[in-house]
C-alpha cells in the first residue's frame, strides 16, 4: 500500500506540510494588521442614506476602522438613486477613475462622499477628505462583496437579512 492510501501515510504527510509551513513572523502579522481595515459591526438596514439630501432609500450600512484612526462608512442600496448633480449646498459631483469603475465624489464637511454604480447595486462611501486610498478601499470591498452577493443575489433587493460585508479589507497596496 502506498503512503498516500494508508491513513498513517496521509497523517504523516499532513504533519510534514504543517511543520514545514512557515508561520507568519510577528512583524509580518503586524504589517497585515496595519494594512487592513476591519468591519466594526455587522451591516444593519436603515432608511435614508445620510450622505445625501433628504431621501428614503433603504440600504445596508457598516463601518470599517483602518489603523485605529480612520473610519470608512459604507452604504449599499439596490436602488439606482436619482441623485442631483448639484447638491443643496451647491457642491457638484466630480468624476474619479478607479479600477472598479466610474466613481463620483463630492465634499461633505471634512469628508468626501463617493458613489460607485454597479450592475446590481450602488455603493456610497463616506471617507475622510485627507485619505488618498479611496480606489483601494472601493476595490477591496467590491470583489468580496460581489462574491457574497452571488451566493444569495436576492438579499440586495430585500435586505432581509442584509447582504454580507467583508470582515477585512486588504489595503496592503497603500503606501505607508
Topology:
Elements lengths: L6 H14 L5 H9 L1 E4 L4 E4 L10 E9 L3 E8 L16 E5 L2 E8 L2 E7 L4 E7 L5 H18 L3 H4 L9 E3 L6
Antiparallel strand pairs: 1-3, 1-9, 2-3, 3-4, 4-8, 5-6, 6-7, 7-8
CA(first)-CA(last) distance: 54 Å
- Shape type: globular
Text of the CATH class of the largest domain: Alpha Beta
Number of domains: 2
Helix content, binned percent = 25-40%
Order of helices and strands: HHEEEEEEEEHHE
| Relative strand content | 25-35%
Number of helices: 4
Q: Which consecutive residue ranges, at least 5 long each, have pLDDT under 50?
A: 1-7, 9-22, 24-31
- Content-based structural category: alpha+beta
Find the count of extended strands (DSSP E, 2+ residues): 9
Radius of gyration: 21 Å
